[in-house]
# Entry
Amino acid sequence: MQRQARLEQLHRKAPFWEHHGEFSEELDGMENVVRELRRRALDIRTTPVRRVLDRIPRVASELARELGKQVRVELSGENVEVDRAILDHLDDPLLHVIRNAIDHGIETPEERLSAGKDATGTLRLSASRVAGRMHLRVEEDGRGIDIEALRRRAVERGLLLEMVAEDLPPERIRELVFEPGISTRADVTDISGRGVGMDAVKRSIESLGGTVSIESASETGTIFDFDLPSMVALQRVLVLKLGGERVALPVAQIEAVLGAEESQIEANTGDAFFEFKGEPLPLLDLAEEVGLPRTASASNANVLVVEVRGFRLGLLVDRAVGDMEVFVRETPRPLSTLAALAGVAVLPDGAPVFVLEIGVLVERFL
# Structure
């Protein structure tokens, strides 16, 4: 793919290239062949999601027995094909959600009978693939999340002011489950905790370019929805100039690319803000954050508006070069220990660039 792109660049630099019709036709033919080879190579990487789902009934049965509970597991969509790399990283967060559902969601047989439910709880897992995305739903018919208890816990931990917490709708309160250390239970078991470790689940899913959301109703259960790319080898990224270097960010998290006008930037006691659609957004100098000098003045720079975990902010960069589809590979050792590096991509000109993990870079704002 890189060599093909390089040939196209050289062709356009050649004198009177627009008159070389035969060469253009051959390039188009090569592009079709490369696209087909890439499709076949990616097909080899896929495997049915049953590789992860098949073990869930056994795990759920063992946990339920240990906790004195009864649970039936219903699976669907086990034949959905997903990139092996997705499944390799999905195993741990999915198991944590399963443990969470059985430990803190599904009640004991006695509690269920007294609530007019079947003594045996139900845990449903369904997978589907739509428009290149894999959707995985984990649903249990347990006690649901106690919204008011979660609201009080958030205030106690200082995550929300009491007056703010009182006005937040239930769907916003439910999202607090993904904050570190939030639990509606006074006791935390060794198996799981509703909210304890759920921040790690969300981080894992986001690192794959996915999202996780939650729905819950008192006494009727909780649903976790995972939305993930079905392939991770090929990603669309925005290439940036940053301190004289090129880096990349996943396009999925970028809402807008704007020119940075000094009139729109306001500095206040060390913090900077950028006005976007009439709303002041925190502004982070990305070059400074990764330890590179910024080579462009603010008036000539770009601002990227990004959204991470429901929080919107601006990233100041030297220049946005352009977006493209690239193969993203794992970060090699010893750099793989740096959480801010999501991988390494090879650009069409053959140059490697680091793909940055936005969520880690803006952690202090979340």
Q: What stands out?
A: DSSP finds twelve helices and 18 strands in the chain.
